[in-house]
Design goal:
By secondary structure, the protein is an alpha/beta fold. The protein is about 50% helix and about 15% strand. The chain has helices at about 1-15, 25-35, 45-60, 75-85, 100-110, 130-135, 140-155, 165-175, 200-205, 215-220, 225-244; strands at about 15-20, 40-45, 65-70, 95, 115-120, 160, 180, 210-215.
Length: about 240
């Protein structure tokens, strides 16, 4: 029974529901509706400025896992001090842009001995090769993701945010002791919306992702709990395949 319980918990924790809504009231209603079906939530910039930190505290007090998607990028001194303050909040994960070693090292210094896990944002899943060319970057998204993931791993960052399309290459490059969180997840039959490099839950887990960030496919569903459980079914199927 203990093994079965752990497996259910593993499946639940693999799904991160993105609370990409404009207000604390909206987010609280979603959390209430999902109940025990979901144990891990992402709070991003939109919600942060309307009660997001208040909700983060409430989620942690309720035993939920919390991921602050801040995507920090600034001079090292500012990043270090910001991460130090965020670490005191007791959240589980924090994102920083993995564009250079100075930013990553500053974030690691700010984290100190806290239990906060740092995640480097490699390349936004909405970006294409043409978008990168506009920034003066000649690498493909896949090449840039892999280079930045290797840099983050070498510096000692806990993991990265990356498309499922790059997860397998990252896993092969840095090994198993590195967290890969994959956004841009679209269950079978869902619209891609603004995600240029989307992947199904099952395929992302099979490619090496540890956690999946899902927003609109859950938030816009007629029954959010049923939608979340259906995604967990896809995750369960992938885990079963991996263990065979």
């Amino acid at each position: 029974m203990a093994e079965q319980s752990a497996t259910r918990e593993e499946i639940k924790n693999a799904l991160i529901v993105a609370l990409d809504v404009p207000s604390y009231e909206d987010a609280s209603a979603i959390v209430s509706e999902l109940g025990d079906a979901v144990s891990f939530y992402k709070i991003g910039l939109e919600l942060l400025f309307d009660g997001g930190l208040r909700l983060a505290h409430e989620l942690r007090d309720a035993g939920k896992l919390v991921f602050l998607d801040m995507k920090l990028l600034d001079i090292g001194n500012t990043v270090e001090k910001a991460v130090r303050n965020i670490a005191r909040l007791g959240v589980n994960y924090l994102t920083i842009h993995a564009v250079d070693g100075k930013t990553l090292r500053a974030a690691k210094e700010g984290k100190g001995a806290s239990e906060l896990k740092l995640l480097g944002v490699t390349v936004l899943t909405s970006l294409t090769k043409e978008d990168l060319a506009e920034q003066g970057i000649s690498e493909s998204p896949q090449e840039l993701v892999l280079r930045r993931a290797r840099m983050a791993h070498t510096i000692g960052i806990d993991g990265v945010i990356a498309s499922g399309l790059e997860a397998r290459a990252i896993r092969e490059a840095v090994g198993s002791d590195f967290t890969i969180i994959t956004p841009g997840i679209r269950p079978v039959g869902s619209a891609a919306n603004d995600q240029a490099r989307a992947m199904t839950p099952r395929d992302a887990i099979l490619a090496g992702a540890n956690h999946l960030v899902v927003g609109r496919p859950v938030l816009n569903a007629p029954d959010r709990k049923i939608a979340a459980l259906a995604i967990q079914d896809e995750i369960r199927d992938a885990f079963s395949t991996l263990k065979q």
